[in-house]
Amino acid sequence: MGQTSGEKSGRCLLYCLRHGETNWNREGRIQGQLDQPLNDTGRQQVRMSAQQLKKEYDPLPFDVCYTSPLLRCSESAEILVEGLGMPASAIRRDDALKEWNAGKMQGHLLSELANLFPAEWHAWRIHRDPDHEMAGGESFRQRYVRVVGAVERIAAAHPDEDILIMTHGGVLDDLFRKATNMGMFAPSNCPKINAAVHLIQLTPSGRPEDPFEWTILKWGNVDLDKLPKPAMAGTEHHLPSFVAREGAQTVTVTEGGGAGVQGIEYA
């Protein structure tokens, strides 16, 4: 579905959601590519998002839902399409939409990482080294190339259509970076609330080396003017204080970045 009249632009509208909450999310434990089911809160979060989408869009503009095959996303996608009245056959699982492979850090609490894996911790949280391959895992750049390539492949396959994508916090971080030209070095504090809906438009650019123009049309319920701005590499990341609200969930981001948001980014 998508554009129904007028000149076709080839653009693809992506309705991107992070999966619902898991117990490891609540504990602050790194999931990465390990499987965890949703908890009851997570299931309800996705049901609420389905209800909100049905209220906002009549008729629904999409009939396909791409998802990471990891359990927390697959389960979220199944709940979402059922809540929207879409058939189970609308779900398409795509390995390239998986969360960051955090290697040996997976399964550990965020609070343990600095002591257990100092090299990985410094590369991730202190130096933001995009080319450091986590022990047993992948680098930021490897994930970014995988994710951006997958989303542009999906957009190219669905010109003038609207598509649902169920994925992870790390994947959303990459989409935000691409759409805002943030680059790989700056820290990111864009809110990635469980089951929140983010709307990104990809429009063909006519440039083979960079085939789409990326535009964020909606990021949860956050005022776009208050979204974090890119920081220069090697500088402090100064952000305004704001509150992102999705249903009954509230996340506060304070100046300099908050552990409450960063701590669940890849969990």
Automatic annotation (TrEMBL):
Domain of life the protein comes from: Eukaryota
Q: Got a GO cellular component term for this one?
A: cytoplasm
Residues at the catalytic site? H19, E99
Fetch the Gene3D superfamilies from UniProt.
Phosphoglycerate mutase-like (3.40.50.1240)
GO molecular function terms listed in the Swiss-Prot or TrEMBL record:
phosphatase activity
Listed InterPro entries: His_Pase_superF_clade-1 (IPR013078), His_PPase_superfam (IPR029033), PGM_Phosphatase (IPR050275)
Write out the residues that bind substrate: R18, H19, G20, E21, T22, N23, W24, N25, R72
Cited SMART domains: PGAM
What's this protein's name?
A: Phosphoglycerate mutase
